[in-house]
Write a structure and sequence with these properties.
3 copies of one chain form a homotrimer.
Chain A (H helix, E strand, L loop, with lengths): L1 E6 L5 E4 L1 H10 L5 E6 L5 E7 L3 H14 L13 H10 L2 E7 L2 E2 L5 E7 L5 E10 L4
Amino acid sequence: METLELRTPRREALVRITPALQELVAANNWRDGALVVFCPHTTAGLTVNEDADPDVAADMVDILARLVPRDPGYRHAEGNSDAHVKTTLAGPSLTLIVADGQIRLGTWQGVYLCEFDGPRTRKIWVQWLGQAAP
Amino acid sequence: METLELRTPRREALVRITPALQELVAANNWRDGALVVFCPHTTAGLTVNEDADPDVAADMVDILARLVPRDPGYRHAEGNSDAHVKTTLAGPSLTLIVADGQIRLGTWQGVYLCEFDGPRTRKIWVQWLGQAAP
Amino acid sequence: METLELRTPRREALVRITPALQELVAANNWRDGALVVFCPHTTAGLTVNEDADPDVAADMVDILARLVPRDPGYRHAEGNSDAHVKTTLAGPSLTLIVADGQIRLGTWQGVYLCEFDGPRTRKIWVQWLGQAAP
C-alpha cells in the first residue's frame, strides 16, 4: 500500500490529485489493472469530476454547502456533522482503471480529494490490483 | 479494457446497462473476480438500484432534480453545474462482484447509467479483475 | 464470494460491520489485496464514516431524512422512494484495502451498512481480490 500526503487550503475545497496518482503508477511500473484509492478520513472524501473549468469545483463546494448546511442543531459536539455527511455523499474510495500504464480518465475528468473540514494535512492510500488470469 | 456505448434518451434519465455488462462477462469468459465499471464523463454517473419498477428510476430523477436545481446562479458558464454535482453524488464508478461467470446482483437490483445532461452518446469502460491467490 | 447477514434495528440506522468484515479476512487468511463489499438490496447502502462518536451516525440519519423526505407524492407505489434515493447517495458497494491481513481504515473510521427501509434482515456480499503481479 502506498501513501500520498497533501495540504488542503481551506475548510471546503476540491484538491486535484490526478498528477500525484499518475506519478505513483509510473514509479511502480503498474501496467494493467486497477487502483484502489482510499481516503482514511471521516471529513474528506474522493471524487472524479471536471478538470478543465475550476468553476465546476467551486460550484460543487457551494452546492454541497447549501444541501447540507452547518447547522448548530446537530448532536455531534464537534460541530462538523455537515462534513461527515458530505464525506458519505462523495464517498470514501474510488477504483480507477489502469491500462498500458495509464490511469484511464475521460477527456474532461480529474481525480479530487474533497475537503469538507480543513485546512488540514490529509493522507490518501493507494492499493494496486493487477489483472490475474480469468 | 472494454468499452460500451449507448445513447441516452433525454436530459435526465437512468438507463439500464445490466444486460450489456453480463454479455461482456460471458463473451470474455470471465469467471471469478470483479468488474470495475467506470463512466468517463463529468455529467453522467453510475448506480445500482431497483430494476423491477420503472417508477423508482423516474422518482430518482425527480428527487435529484429537486435536491440540486438548475439554478442560473452558478459560476460554471455552461449552465450544467447541477449535472456535475449529481454525477459526484451518484459516483463515477462501480465495482461489481462476478462469481461463476455471473455478475452478482440482488433480486431487485439493476445497474444504471445516470444521465444528467443528455441526450448524448455515452461510453462506459469496463476492466476485469480476476481473483489472484491470497 | 462470502455472505454476511445481519438484522437492522429500525427504519433508518447505520449498523457497524467492521468487526464482521475483519473476522472474514482473518478466517480466510487474506493478506494483501482488496475486499469488494456489496449490498444486494435497493433500500440499503454502504459507507465508511466516524466510528468513535455514535452521534455522527445519528446525525447522518437525520440529515439524510431532511434531504430526502418521505413524501407521499412519489410515483413508486411502495412509498419508499426516499430509501431508494438514499441508497444511491450512499452507494451500493465499497472497495477496502487489505494489507498484511488487516482491513486498512483511518483512526476514526468504521464500515457501516446504511439501513433506509428497515427493520429487516440484510445480506452483505464480500469478494476477495488478491494482488497479482504488476
